[in-house]
Amino acid sequence: MNANESVDRYSEYFADANAMLEALEGQQAALTGTEAIRAWWASVEVCEDRFSRLKSYVFRRRMPAGYREALRELEQRRVRLPWIPRIELVAWMQNLREFPNLVVLEVDCYHRARDGSVEITRILAMDGAGDVLLDQRLRPAQADTNQASCYGGLAADGLVNALTAPQIWPALLAALAGKYVVAADVESCQIQLMLTAKRHRLAVPALVGQSILPLCRAYFPAGRCDERDSRQGDSSQDLAALCARIGFPLPAHPIQTALDRASGLLLLLQAMSEGFPYHAPPVNSPEGLKSDSD
């Protein structure tokens, strides 16, 4: 192939890749919803194929520096394309919201100053429509009146008249029976329930369900939420950053409660099931979602 033919072929590949990229750039302003996302990723796959073919041709033919610079500029535009969630995650969230037995579970915990041990002070279960199935405060077995709860701002002396774990346990088991449980961290909830059950010699609830935060992190890549609100290993901080991303900021600690987090989780499920992109307007809060400030 002579030099002119190489340039013609390069121009053909470049024009093809550039046209695909311009089409994607033109879609980004109003891109939302599952069908638009599905079409977006189909176009991205075609664009990637065109770009790969162009890049391979430039380096295989050892095109001059000017051609390589044009390729770099094209690649920079490709990198600046907006983040769009994978359609598989959107479909997963849609299916999850269809579960008739879906329950969102959150707990508030009391940390004793004396030894750092943790006790549950509030258990909340909410169904997929935002209706509260169970909301019970628990009296700590050994309360330290000088120590406030880590979550919820519940002072120990404010729990003196709360029910004990044995008193609320039958209602808890009934609320979780046959349910698919989602929580920011299901494993952490399971551990706290197990410790409480063993402390009071009660039946241990077996949670069947899913921790949502790993899926949320996959949906909203690193850098798409405010890192000031996110601390690795702290599920409540991760959840706060994600809720802020969709326009539903949670109250700050220590006044943030289990009800706030459960409502935030439900809104995250809704937003992701609707294909919420980072530049879209906030989702509307479903009717029935409640807050302790209401």
Q: What report would you give on this structure?
A:
The chain has helices spanning 3-27, 34-60, 65-79, 87-97, 165-176, 186-199, 213-219, 235-245, 258-273, and strands at 102-111, 118-127, 132-137, 180-183, 209-211. With 294 residues, the protein is of the alpha/beta class. It folds into two domains: 3-82, no CATH class; 93-273, 2-Layer Sandwich (Nucleotidyltransferase, domain 5). Helix 1 (3-27) runs antiparallel to helix 2 and helix 1 (3-27) runs parallel beside helix 3. The chain is elongated and about 90 Å long. 30% of the residues are buried.
Keyword list:
single chain; 294 residues; alpha/beta; Nucleotidyltransferase, domain 5; 2 domains; five-stranded mixed sheet; 5 strands; 11% strand; elongated
- Count all strands and give the number: 5
- Principal-axis shape equals elongated
For the largest beta-sheet, the strand count, sense and barrel status come to: 5 strands, mixed
CATH architecture of the largest domain: 2-Layer Sandwich
* % residues in beta strands: 5-15%
Proportion of residues in helical segments: 40-55%
Helical stretch count?
9
Mean pLDDT: 80
Radius of gyration: 25 Å
The tally of domains stands at: 2
User: How are the strands ordered across the major sheet?
Assistant: 3-2-1-4-5
State the CATH superfamily name of the largest domain: Ribonuclease H-like superfamily/Ribonuclease H
- CATH top level of the largest domain is Alpha Beta
**Distance N terminus to C terminus?**
75 Å
Extract low-pLDDT stretches.
145-152, 224-233, 279-283
CATH fold-level assignment of the largest domain? Nucleotidyltransferase, domain 5
Structural classification: alpha/beta
- Topology as H/E string? HHHHEEEHEHEHHH
